[in-house]
Amino acid sequence: MSEPLLVVDDLRTYFSTEEGIVRAVDGISFTMEPGQRLGVVGESGSGKSVTALSVMGLIEPPAGEIVTGRILFKGQNLLELDEDQMQEVRGGQIAMIFQDPMTALNPVYTIGDQLMETILLHQDVSRSEAREIAIQAIEDVQIPNASQRMMDYPHQYSGGMRQRIMIAMGLSCNPDLLIADEPTTALDVTTQAQIMDLMLQLAEDRGTAVMLITHDLGVVAGFCDDVHVMYAGGIVESGSIDDIYYNPQHPYTWGLLGSMTRLDDAQRKRLHSVRGAPPSVIDLPKGCRFRPRCDFATEICGEVLPALRDVGNPGQRAACHHAEELDLKSMTAGEETQEPAVSEGASS
Amino acid sequence: MLAYITRRLVYGLVTLLALSMIVFMLLQLSGGGPLDRLRLNPRMQPVIQQLTEQWGLDQPIWKQYVTWLSHYVRPSEFSLHNALPIIAIGAAAAATVAIGKFMKAHWKGALILVVWIVAMYVTFTNLTIKFDWGTSFQGAGDVWDLVFSRVGATFRLGFTALFLALVIGIPLGIYQAIRQYSFFDQLGTTGAFIAFSTPIFIVGVGLQLIFALYFEKWTGVKLFYVAGMNSPGYSDMTFWQKLGDTLQHLVLPAVSIALISLAGYSRFQRASMLEVLHSDYLRTAKAKGLPRSRIIIKHALRNALIPVVTLISLDIAFMIGGAIITETIFGWPGVGRLYIAAIGTVDYPVIMAIVMIIGIGIVIMNVVADILYGVMDPRVRYE
Questions:
Q1: FRET label pair with B84: which of A105, A250, A299, B142, CA 20 to 30 Å apart?
Q2: Lowest model confidence (mean pLDDT) among A193-207, A235-249, A275-289
């Protein structure tokens, strides 16, 4: 692949609040290739959603501000575009799906109206053509009786159906990148699986790159090629699915994997929990941000913020001073289980 | 939906019945009868005797009430000028059934409303109807004629004030919400609180002093009048003079009412708009790449206006009772002044007539508000 689809370079997005400056995203860099499916995982407040909103240009000043950094989308720095140009990108080339489908659609307009609005905005088509495209989009997300359901209002759809509509809306203009911000968090488990399968299939068919933001490692395992693990505004580890799940290099990743429930765990062990709570991103500790919660911290961890560097398998990177010394693969967080936890979703 | 409207109207009827009973009873209980003033003069004894019998004041309360009610609802005059009223109502009824049965769009409520408004208009312009609301105890004549001679003035003032309040208040609220915490927003908020917390008689008298009295003193130009609805020579004026004269009388009282209610509307609109601006579906609209103007006008405004429309409907209902204080300050010949005068002189038939008109207005406008609510918000179902 010649040119990367998305390059995020040293992005810093801060919010000013009464308590101080919230460094929601504090210097992250990553690259996405066309058609790549990238998972961004982390706890609440780790900065994953803010990363997505920054890429979409949806950070609202004066509260939030992108302080430094570049977001190159197909070689073009999105942060340098004016509002008109950014509107072309939003919805047309980068689409976004949000967490709560129950409130993400405007209650007073029909589904058809809201779908056609996007299509008419980004594509040079007539109303009747837009209608055809919208009906096709609804059929693509496997909602039967599409031309009838175009005339229904959001409240006449169930939660899962509405998320399907959001996906249809996102994909209706054939974007190069789809950002899905916790698309299944608000849905029940059965619906979750259906929605993820649908997204996987549609993204694969169209070659759309997807950035999947979630705190659910199981969902990531079934969907993504690569994963970034975020902690307190920074990426602490990144790599392919297999690298992260079978060969974690950062104690935080390792701790997260140990805290997952497993269907094949016959011994009913206590689940591991990463002790403590994430630090306040207003008042970050000196040195490694994970140090207060880390079982392996040493003196240097309190002094120097570790940079993301190549460790482990080729292409894998982690931000830990002790990545080489620790043999996390052979240890299991909490009590001993034979192999690192892999979600049941990994095989699907 | 038809069943819903019918049920609401039946409930409304029960409410009105209860209202009339309570008010009738309270008037009797409040002490002091309409004839007490005459008692100061000993020679009036036979007159008091005669009037007490004539007005039925010697009867038990329930009997007085029943007599009043049976007269109140009975038309004293009724004649059709032609067959149009019957045709209009018949057509409206048929249209309502047809719309209810065959239309799927959620705005059928609006259509029914329009059909009935047109039908009512045609009906009332083609018939003479008058109810026996009694005769004023103060010798002001037939109550029906008396009240309806005042309604025009009240509506002229009320609707002008409402129009001003809406045209200024709603855009103001929207703008304040869009530019939340800006200097303009703070200014608007402060201004709204000052306007809202100033008693109307201070606003009214203040406007009179500044724009009528001192303005004329300083510039020698008579810009506004402080009392009345028209000048004495009104009927001899040309059209433009008439218009000018009307405005000169109307502006100050209308502005005093509008100032206070626009403060209310702008606050309400601001709050409702802010709620919508922070909603998820607005973020979706932004993520679609819609321009800001479209997001505000199409996605935000439509939702933010829903609660305001309800408020407006109810405001219109209260307008029928007239603006008592403003009408008094500006010598405006409206229902409000009639009302307060009737209370002062314990004029039972007039008080009852006005109370009931307000009540009927509120019942009808409540139903209208419900229908409009359903038209604007597709989630609302009439069960």
A1: B142
A2: A275-289
DSSP letters, A36-52, are -EEEEE--TTSSHHHHH
Assigned token pair, A320 = 């830990």
| A91 contacts B290? CB cut-off 8 A | yes
Q: How many distinct structural domains can be found in chain A?
A: 2
For A296, the domain range is 240-347
**Chain B partners within 8 Å of A96 (Cβ):** 287
Residues A89, A225: one domain?
yes
CB contacts < 8 Å between A and B, how many? 72
Residue B193 has pLDDT above 90, yes or no: yes
Can you tell me the distance from the alpha carbon of B252 to that of B203, in angstroms, rounded to the nearest whole number?
A: 10
A111 touches B at CB < 8 Å? no
pTM for this model (two decimals):
0.83
Residue A214 scores a pLDDT above 80: yes
Of A208, A229, A250, the last residue of a domain is A229
Note if the bond before B378 is cis, omega within 30 degrees: no
Q: How many Å lie between the alpha carbon of A286 and the closest alpha carbon of chain B?
A: 35
Predicted pLDDT of residue A265: 60
Fold held by B142-376: MetI-like fold (1.10.3720)
Average pLDDT of chain B to the nearest whole number: 89
Give the span between the Cα atoms of A329 and A337, in whole angstroms: 11
Tell me the per-residue pLDDT of B319-350, one tens digit each, with 9 for 90 and over: 887 788 999 999 999 999 999 999 988 888 99
Residue A116 has pLDDT above 90, yes or no: yes
Judge if A280 and A326 occupy the same domain: yes
CB of A194 within 8 Å of a chain B CB? The answer is no
Q: Could B288 and A88 be called an inter-chain contact, meaning their C-beta atoms sit closer than 8 Å?
A: no
- For residue B104, which residues of chain A lie inside 8 Å, CB to CB? 151
- If asked whether residues A44 and A142 sit together in one domain, one would say yes
Contact across the interface for A91 and B106, Cβ inside 8 Å: no
ipTM: 0.84
Residue A7, beta-bridge partner list: A31, A72
CATH at A45? 3.40.50.300
Out of A207, A229, A251, a domain closes at A229
> B-chain residues within 8 Å CB-CB of A92?
289
DSSP B198: S
Does residue A92 share a domain with residue A177?
Answer: yes
Contact call for residues A240 and A225 (beta carbons, < 8 A): yes
Residues A274 and A127 in one domain: no
Residue A9 counted as domain residue: no
Q: Please give the mean pLDDT across all residues of chain A.
A: 86
Model pLDDT for residues A217-239, shown as the tens digit of each residue: 888 888 999 999 999 888 999 99
Q: Are A252 and A274 in contact (CB under 8 A)?
A: yes
